[in-house]
Design goal:
With about 290 residues, this protein is α/β, with parallel strands linked by helices. The chain is built from seven helices and 13 strands. The strands form four sheets. It has a five-stranded mixed β-sheet, with helices on one face. The chain has a four-stranded mixed β-sheet with strand order 4-1-5-6, covered by helices on one side. A hairpin with a 6-residue loop joins strand 12 and strand 13.
Length: about 290
């Protein structure tokens, strides 16, 4: 990116301004106080550096970054995978020390937790469309002349942090990979948002957001769809687990029946009779007088 040295990944808060901008001049003291207060405050991505860019003398740079109004404040940071992210300070939010610091801390945490991947042919074939891979994929297709793509990408980053671990999020640039987009039946209008199944044949995915639709309005619906899919998968996995347990129980061999041990008949003890006495079943007889 334009604000990172080759081996430097600390986050930057950038104030884009012009000398004739009255609001830029009004906020400069709050900006300096925020920079001084944040000095030495560590965030999940390191220490935040504050800087400014004069768009009057750096017109080409500001134009390439899409700066259209002043003042504009952005946070630039790298995620854990080394990908660069940018967050724009809300224009309606008060420009003061507390809000600047809150934006810097929360923005770095968001970049740290976000899992928005850059998709190429290898990732698409191995992870997204591979029938043997497991996991939901939400893929945004972007291209040239797409004013809505930046806002949608930032919102997807937030969503990936909010539902971390539930789904995989990626962005495919159709200007760089036109054949991949053609194979996924994505035209020349953007952005397009697709959901790829959890497992099995993935095909070309299910289109969630089409060109022309307001993606920021549809994103809450997209998140609900993802959660519903995961709930159905969890229920299906729970049912399969129950069926497998029942099948294993059914396949178990019956335990051997215990053999009944009949008691041995007790022998009657032979009675010893007195001398001169003879046993008789009916009566006793005495021999002799």
């Amino acid at each position: 990116g334009p604000f990172f040295e080759e081996e430097e990944c600390e986050p930057y808060m950038i104030h884009f301004y012009t000398p004739w901008c009255v609001h830029c001049k009004n906020m400069i003291q709050e900006w300096k106080r925020a920079a001084s207060t944040m000095d030495g405050t560590e965030t999940p991505l390191g220490f935040v550096k504050f800087a400014g860019v004069n768009c009057e003398t750096n017109k080409q740079l500001c134009r390439s970054l899409g700066i259209r109004s002043y003042p504009e404040i952005r946070l630039y940071a790298h995620d854990v995978k080394g990908q660069e992210h940018s967050e724009e300070f809300p224009s309606r939010r008060a420009r003061n020390v507390d809000n600047f610091m809150d934006f810097a801390i929360k923005g770095t945490r968001l970049a740290h937790e976000a899992t928005l991947q850059s998709i190429d042919a290898y990732v698409m074939e191995k992870n997204v469309t591979n029938a043997e891979s497991v996991g939901l994929w939400v893929v945004m297709y972007e291209g040239k002349h797409c004013p809505q793509c930046g806002a949608l990408k930032a919102s997807l980053r937030r969503m990936s942090a909010n539902i971390q671990g539930l789904a995989n999020f990626g962005v495919l640039d159709c200007a760089v990979h036109p054949k991949l987009c053609q194979h996924q039946y994505v035209g020349i209008k953007y952005p397009v948002l697709k959901l790829y199944p959890y497992k099995g044949a993935k095909g070309t995915g299910e289109t969630l957001v089409e060109p022309g639709a307001d993606p920021l309005v549809l994103l809450p619906v997209v998140e609900k769809v993802i959660r519903m899919c995961l709930a159905n998968i969890e229920a299906e996995n729970g049912l399969m687990k129950t069926l497998l347990e029942e099948e294993e129980e059914y396949d178990k061999p019956e335990p051997p029946k215990p053999q009944y041990q009949y008691p041995e008949p007790q022998r009657q003890q032979q009675r010893v009779l007195p001398a001169g006495v003879r046993a008789n079943t009916n009566q006793r007889q005495y021999i002799g007088g």
